[in-house]
Write a structure and sequence with these properties.
Elements (H helix, E strand, L loop, with lengths): L2 E12 L2 E12 L3 E5 L6 H9 L6 E6 L2 E2 L10 E4 L11 H11 L4 H14 L15 H13 L5 E5 L7 H18 L2 E6 L2 H7 L2 E6 L2 E6 L1 H6 L4 H6 L4 E8 L2 E4 L4 E3 L9 E4 L5 E2 L9 E12 L4 E7 L4 E6 L13 E6 L5 E2 L1
Parallel strand pairs: 3-8, 3-9, 6-7, 7-8
Antiparallel strand pairs: 1-2, 1-4, 4-5, 9-10, 11-12, 11-14, 12-13, 14-20, 15-19, 16-17, 16-19, 17-18
Helix pairs in contact: 2-3, 2-4, 3-4
The structure holds adenosine-5'-diphosphate (ADP) and magnesium ion.
The site of adenosine-5'-diphosphate has 11 residues, from strand 2 and helix 1.
C-alpha cells in the first residue's frame, strides 16, 4: 500500500493560540482514516490546512508524494463534505451533483454520464429532478457525498458529516458510509467527536486532544491498549480511579488495592473497562484479584445489561454483565463477587 497523504509536523498558530501542534501522520491509499477528538481540539483547522483553505504556520502536507504548500485549494486533489452539507437549495439533485463539473467546463454529455453513474452508486437513481429540500436527511447526505466524489478527488475529507442527523439515521449512515467507501475505494479522511462513528468506520483512528495527536491506531488497539489517560477516557467507557503506587501495589484514593507488576513510571490514574470484570470467578484463582460489590441498580438497554454497584470502599463501579442467563437473577441489593486480571488494570 502506498501513502497517499503524509502530514509532517504540521502546526497552526492563530496569533498566540496554537490550534494544531506538531501533527504527524500518513494515510494509505484506499484507507478510511478518522481523526477523533472533542469539540475545539483542532480537527477542522487540520482539515482546512489539508484542503488548502488555510495555510499552515509550519510543517508540510504531501499528497502522492508532492508538497501541497503554496498550492491553492482548487488545484489540490481533495474535496470536502461539510457538516452542514452546503447543498444549493434552489437546485435539484442533478444540478447539485453536476455543479463542480460544469464549473470545470466539462463537456455536457460527459457530465451527464458522470452524474448519473455517481447517483446510482450512492443509491439515488431516479432522484435527479428532485429538489434537495424534498429529500430526507440521509438522502441529502448522499447528494453531498456524490457531489464531492464526482470530482474524482484522490482524498475525500469529511468534517463531521453526520453531525446534523438524528441518532437512528446516524447509526444507519455510519454503516452505509463505510460500505460506500469500501466499494468506491476513494481514501477518506473523516473527522468526528463521536467515538462510535470513528471505531465502526475506520481502518485507523487518530485521537486528538488540544491540537495534538495522542495516539494513532486501529480501532481495536485504541480500545484495548490506550496509550494515554485521555485516550482511555475518550474512547469507550471506563471506571476511573485516582491512584498512588507503592511498589507493585496500586491503591485508589478510596482505599481499594490491586497488584500490578511491571509498572516503571509514576502513575496517577487507573482505568478499568466495565466488561473487564469477571462475575463470580473461581475463588481460588490466583490470577484474578477479587472483591465484593453491592448492586445498586441494573441498567438494561435492550442489547446489554450493566450494573451500577458500590465497592466495599464506596466507589461507584460500572460492570457489564456477559450475556449469560446464569446472571439473570442478579438484583438490586445483592452482594456479588467480581474479579479482574492484571492486564485489565490500565494505569497512567
Ligand atoms: N480563524 C481562527 N482564528 C482564531 N482561532 C481559531 C480560528 N479557527 C479556529 N480557531 C480556534 O482553534 C481551535 C480549534 O478549532 P477547530 O479546528 O474548529 O476545532 P474542532 O473542529 O476540533 O472543533 C478553537 O479553539 C478555535 O476557537
Ligand atoms: Mg470542527
Amino acid at each position: 500500500m502506498s501513502k497517499i497523504l503524509e502530514v509532517k509536523n504540521l502546526t497552526k498558530e492563530f496569533d498566540k493560540f496554537t490550534a494544531v501542534k506538531d501533527v504527524d501522520f500518513f494515510v494509505e491509499e484506499g484507507g478510511f482514516f478518522s481523526i477523533l477528538g472533542p469539540s475545539g481540539c483542532g480537527k477542522t483547522t487540520l482539515l482546512r490546512m489539508i484542503s488548502g483553505f488555510i495555510e499552515q504556520t509550519s510543517g508540510d502536507i504531501l499528497i502522492k508524494g508532492q508538497s501541497m504548500t503554496g498550492i491553492p485549494p482548487e488545484n489540490r486533489p481533495v474535496n470536502i463534505v461539510f457538516q452542514n452539507l452546503a447543498l444549493f437549495p434552489m437546485m435539484n439533485v442533478y444540478e447539485n451533483v453536476a455543479f463542480g463539473l460544469k464549473r470545470k467546463k466539462i463537456e455536457k454529455n460527459e457530465i451527464k454520464e458522470s452524474v448519473l453513474s455517481m447517483l446510482s452508486r450512492v443509491g439515488l437513481e431516479g432522484f435527479e429532478k428532485k429538489k434537495v429540500t424534498e429529500l430526507s436527511g440521509g438522502q441529502r447526505q448522499r447528494v453531498a457525498i456524490a457531489r464531492s466524489l464526482v470530482m474524482k478527488p484522490s482524498i475525500l475529507l469529511l468534517d463531521e458529516p453526520l453531525g446534523a442527523l438524528d441518532r437512528q439515521l446516524r447509526e444507519h449512515m455510519k454503516i452505509e458510509l463505510k460500505l460506500l467507501q469500501k466499494e468506491i475505494g476513494t481514501t477518506f479522511v473523516y473527522i468526528t467527536h463521536d467515538q462510535s462513528e470513528a471505531l465502526v468506520m475506520s481502518d485507523k483512528v487518530a485521537v486528538m486532544n488540544k491540537g495534538r495527536f495522542e495516539q494513532i491506531d486501529t480501532p481495536q488497539n485504541l480500545y484495548k491498549n490506550p496509550k494515554t489517560a485521555f485516550t482511555a477516557s475518550f474512547v469507550g467507557e471506563s471506571n476511573r480511579f485516582d491512584i498512588k503506587r507503592d511498589g507493585n501495589h496500586i491503591i485508589t484514593s478510596s482505599g481499594l488495592s490491586f497488584i500490578k507488576d511491571g509498572l516503571q513510571n509514576e502513575v496517577t490514574q487507573l482505568f478499568i473497562r466495565p466488561e473487564a470484570f469477571i462475575i463470580e470467578p473461581a475463588q481460588d484463582d490466583k490470577d484474578i484479584q477479587q472483591m465484593n460489590i453491592k448492586v445498586k441498580t441494573i441498567l438494561f438497554d435492550g442489547s446489554n445489561t450493566k450494573i451500577s454497584a458500590l465497592s466495599e470502599k464506596n466507589d461507584e463501579i460500572l460492570i457489564s454483565l456477559p450475556q449469560n442467563s446464569k446472571f439473570d437473577d442478579i438484583k438490586e441489593g445483592d452482594t456479588i463477587r467480581v474479579g479482574i486480571t492484571q492486564d485489565n488494570l490500565k494505569c497512567f
